[in-house]
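Input chain follows. Return structure tokens only.
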Amino acid sequence: MSQLILVRHGESEWNAKGIWTGLTDIGLSEKGKEQARLVGEKLKGFSINFAFTSVLIRAKQTLNEVKSVLGIDVPTFEDKALNERDYGIYTGKNKWEIKKEVGDEQFQNIRRGWDVPIENGESLKDVYNRVVPYYEAEILPKLKEGKNILIVAHGNSLRALVKYLENLSDDEVKNLEILFDQIYFYEISPQGDVSSKKVVNAGD
């Protein structure tokens, strides 16, 4: 069995302010860097052969903090397919002010819905349609070879991947939230199927 490890980046400067970040390239806050180091501590003892991340600085900083704690320098691949969702017209706006404007139900749809379009942006379905082909082409073959892989990405790109891995329904994925300090561990069979799953909070 190979290990697939999924980690969301630590808190960014805009996350701390409640601002929708999307594709804006914002770095980690000090809290975010500490969260990343805690993830690294939790991953001690795990063998990692390859790492994958997005092209956005907050994900790359998180991965670098993790690798620094682990004292490893594994082959690392960056790709925009793993980027955060493009929040379009909401990018740079305060989430809680938007919630007041549109109401609780619509706000939840915008944040967590499956096929909810955003003007000049992406739905989670759009994110899925770029994340999953990349996973199948670049990551899954390595897992089938028995390699252990760490992916450091974003709340929505990881939600899209978890939907695929766990075969979640469109409704089920609405209730999925991946926290900053959570680590998802999947055992992947030589056939590429998920055989077990464990979620760990790095802060515990």
